[in-house]
């Protein structure tokens, strides 16, 4: 599904983010930025050692922040690594931290001339965020940022399975 907000197209697709031909893909990393499982493992495997080499120089990343590296062998030029919150009960600042991941990733994208960007469902795997809530936060935050900034042409949410895709599609429809 896709929707136009001002000059930006927001869209949801089912797929593997490592195959995306966009300027930047976002990684759901951890604070070490030294790799892990899930989408993080897939990105490092597909992109090769150049990504980890740059990550080692970044001194990690705080939850809610975002840092950029090369895309290595990926079709995407850059990887923007962000660290989502580990979900406890939703009362420990998780919504704000998750929103900040999307906001900071887009700010880093804008600073680096990125026009097309793909996001995975940050925190929705190993970090256990309830998917419908995460999807609403993702859409609302991205919509806010693109409404007040020109420069991003396309934001694609690349969801790995139907059970994640559907709540993201619902949240996009509600915007
Ligand atoms: N393309 C798109 N989405 C994917 C892919 C892929 N190739 N592979 C998995 N997903 P997760 P988190 C989906 O666990 O919850 C790592 O170890 C997956 O189905 O990757 O933020 C990090 O190093 C889920 O919907 O990230 C951290 O330690 C979504 O991506 C921790 O996991 C996010 O799941 C971060 O946990």
How would you summarize the topology of this molecule?
Blueprint: E1 2-5, E2 8-14, E3 24-29, H1 38-47, H2 49-56, E4 66-70, E5 78-83, H3 94-111, E6 116-119, H4 131-148, E7 154-159, H5 162-174
Parallel strand pairs: 2-7, 3-5, 3-6, 6-7
Antiparallel strand pairs: 1-2, 4-5
The structure holds ligand AR6.
Ligand AR6 is lined by residues 16-18, 28-30, 36-40, 42, 84, 120-127, 158, 160-161, 164.
Protein model, in words:
There is one protein chain. The mean pLDDT is 98. The longest helix has 18 residues, at 94-111. The protein has a single domain (2-174), classed as Leucine Aminopeptidase, subunit E, domain 1. It has a seven-stranded mixed beta sheet with strand order 1-2-7-6-3-5-4, with helices on both faces. Helix 3 (94-111) packs parallel to helix 4 (131-148) and helix 4 (131-148) crosses helix 5 (162-174). It is built from five helices and seven strands, in the order βββααββαβαβα. Helix 4 (131-148) links the parallel strand 6 and strand 7. The protein has 175 residues and is α/β, with parallel strands linked by helices. The structure holds ligand AR6. Ligand AR6 binds next to strand 3 and helix 1.
How far apart lie the N and C ends?
12 Å
Number of strands: 7
Radius of gyration: 14 Å
CATH class: Alpha Beta
Helices, by number, come to: 5
Name the quaternary structure.
single chain
What general form does the structure show? globular
The biggest sheet, with number of strands, parallel, antiparallel or mixed sense and barrel status, is:
7 strands, mixed
Class of secondary structure makeup:
alpha/beta
